[in-house]
Amino acid sequence: MNRDTPFGSRRNRLLATLGEGIAIIPTAPEVTRNRDSDYPYRFDSYFHYLTGFGEPEAVLVLIGGDSPRQLLFCRDKNEEREIWDGYRLGYEAAREHLGMDETFCIDELDAKMPSLMANQPTLLYPAGADRGWDARVFGWLNEVRAMARTGTRAPASIVDVRSLLDEMRLVKDAHELDTMRAAAAISADAHVRAMRMAAPGRMEYEIEAELLHEFRRRGSQFPAYTSIVAGGANACVLHYRENSAVLRDGDLLLIDAGCELDGYASDITRTFPVNGRFSGPQRDIYALVLAAQHAAIQAVAPGRSWDDPHQAALSVLVEGLIDLGLCQGTPESVIETGDYRRFYMHRTGHWLGLDVHDVGDYREGGQWRALREGMVLTVEPGCYVRPGAGVPEAFWNIGVRIEDDVAVTTSGCEVITSGVAKSIEDIEALMRSGTD
Ligand code: GLY
Ligand code: MN
Ligand code: MN
User: Which residues, judged by CB distance below 6 Å to any ligand atom, belong to the binding site of ligand 1?
Assistant: First the structure.
């Protein structure tokens, strides 16, 4: 049996942590978009982390203890459905293929689960994640409880299995890092393509199409999130997603877009001038955000606190906001009063992995947690200047964010999205070179 895979070793690690008990991890349901059309299917991240299996209607069951068992329920082969919808692995082939001890047809789930849960001290599942699964799992639990007079015990404690898996997912293994580097490289090239294609008169959605083209051409299955292609003042709308406006000469274009590759997200933001040349005020804000990002990246290393990159970015930004006349007072007072939040209202990053805002606690024992080798985070300071009283008009409607994906290494960090231009000189040179 082939259990020598990253997925097999993750299951073994989970089994070692959970001790005595039974873990139930279903994949995601298919979701109707409208009438007969479904949304493109995306597996559940936890399920995929442990199986690498991409079909819907599947449930992983892990039984801990002295003789651990790894079981999978999934669809059977079905010639008729395979003619219409495509290949199914089938539960018989799944055993060898996915390295399970036993596999069953998903139709047997309700019949088999109560006896599998019987006499297990602990039940681990993603409690509260889905009402349908909650009802089903509690139904099985009640069936086990009803067997009490036969001497059968039902699990006495229920643990959210995500609390164990989140900690595992937070530190990426070599297989995950390789996939994330590959996703980052595709996204970086997509941003380069977007920079080359941008020009006054083009529409934001035309540039979005260039990003999607590069993602898909290179084998990415989906964008990791809805791409933000925001020209001019739209860049000051943090979650702008309409992507429907014309790009204007003299405006900046902020693009926040990243592909998902084999389940793993990338997340890049670049901001550049539509006409290929930064104006003076645009240059001022851009250089400030870039300096803040540089300071934040310098603060990513094992043993540093999660909050260090944010604080590093914030002190650079606040000094710059004061120098540019956007904030008044001393750096300490601007930080103390939070006045900078008029221009910088989000934090400097988040964990990145199977989910773009990936799992994992940011605090541990009441403190910001320490960074460790294998963690992957984004570093994404920004500055967004909406028109307003007392705000120098030269900066109105300039919105800049610069975002890279950074893996913590043994001694510092690796910027895995470095394949796309970031300095003012490199961006202007790239845009001068146009399409080749
Ligand atoms: N693209 C989502 C984010 O930057 O957090
Ligand atoms: Mn991000
Ligand atoms: Mn982003």
Answer: 225, 256, 267, 350, 356, 380, 403
